[in-house]
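Q: What structure does this chain adopt?
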Amino acid sequence: MTNITTDRILILDFGSQYSQLIARRVREAGVYSEMHAFDMADEDIKAFNPKGIILSGGPESVYADNSPKIPQIVLEMGVPVLGICYGFQAMTAQLGGVVEAGDVKEFGYAKIDINEADQLLQNMADDQNQSQVWMSHGDKVTQLADGFAVTSSTPSCPYASASDESRHFYGVQFHPEVTHTDKGETLISNFVHSICGCGNLWNSENIIELRIKQLQEQIGDNQVLLGLSGGVDSSVVAALLHRAIGDKLTCVFVDNGLLRLNEGDQVMQMFAENMGIRVIRANAEDRFLTALAGVTDPEAKRKIIGREFIEVFSEEARKLDSIKFLAQGTIYPDVIESAKSKQGKAHVIKSHHNVGGLPDDLAFELVEPLRDLFKDEVRKLGVALGIPHHMIYRHPFPGPGLGVRILGEVKKEYADILRLADDIFMQELCASGWYDKTAQAFAVFQPVKSVGVVGDGRRYAWVIALRAVETVDFMTARFAHLPYDLVDKISTRIMNEIADVSRVVYDVSSKPPATIEWE
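A:
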């Protein structure tokens, strides 16, 4: 099979919040892409051997001191280059054009007038020769570099896009990678296919075929150990490894007692019974709850849960013989964030556990078959591998589980109540069609009691909060505007069916300033 990564696009990141979206859109067009920092070394850019290069947006001004510059080799390699927002401005400035602060800043929707449909803007125009795009800029190009011609404009931005087709240099002031730009996927497709000449081999079936071959070559006849959580990433790794190496895979599923209702049994049924994968279930509820007793600080709870997970997993690993490889569900955003951390550009918001913290006596070699895939690609892979849609497209669940959805101290009583409430919430969201309309929804246990009335009696019981949000990237989110009658039904069911709950509240906080999770 032709290597599906031979046609490849390099994205140089200048700090835009949308940079990862660019890489995802390129892959959705069937072309492999990678994202690297703008100061990537010349020899690494050459070695990458891209068919085209995309320069992302960024928060800086090109005329400011020490502003990020495009590596000169990018403009000399002879491959097509697409500059987006800051990328367009940087390319203009470095090729002799002029960029200035705009009198009118553009943030949000705009209509561009397409003056000249070059190769990049083919099939973008509507009947009025316009297209709706998403703008996010204060600076703007005021004089094009030699060789460039304007291709679109807005009333306040005379050069909304421009190109030098002889050198295959293209620039757009708007963001084609966001869903707000009506035909952004068309523009990306035009660039990678029509201009760069890439095929469309990057798809789930080809990825699976390539990854199985790579895994078989890497692992050989050796044994592999995987920490199976039941989440999307580890589940897809399990299915992929099972197809590649069969019974040479052993999974350890640590049941910490902080999972959703019946989740442990569902994991065992799916992977051990239905798929025939060897799964060892470590029932460690008492151990986790004992370690968490009396602890109320969210960060302390996360660290305890992470530590106990590592210890339980390590104990199970020591019982196994001849394990050479440890498989992990690392995905591409984890790799990108890790790289940023090494450069000192990222901050730790919350700690989380990963099997990578194993003791020295368990010196396994790593197998990370998803480390070059985005989450949406991992989900598509999971469906192609036969994992049920409802498991793959489930809402995100935090690594520490219900441990950070029980505010304050974690107790078994609280976890059992929360499991029931959360399950009722999910049932009603699914039945109403709202589950797929929200990006994440869950119940939160409040460690306070409230007075209620049941029949002729008084009830003094716990409070449950409901949280549902709508978001595309989880960096910002607004609370989901669930219908009142749906909220009423969920609330009524929770209080009627769970005797230990006397009040239900709905969280109407958006991010920012709130976070999505409560802890």
